[in-house]
Amino acid sequence: MNDEPRITLISKPGCHLCDEARTVIAAVAADTGVGWVEVSILDDPALREQYAEQIPVTLVDGAQHDYWRVDEKRLRAALA
Asked: Is the pLDDT of residue 2 over 80?
């Protein structure tokens, strides 16, 4: 069994869209039993360079899935 989180939320402090994305991701992860992790762009210069204008960014299995908003149905479908 792979214990790596399947969902990554790339965010930054004080971001209201990040708060909304976190709520959706936490609910979907709890419902599906999938692990997730949150990473701040402030802690990683490479992420800041790549995603500064798109946060929050959601990755599923390491690939970019969504940015700015998390669509719950799309996220569930990507995890299925």
From this structure: no
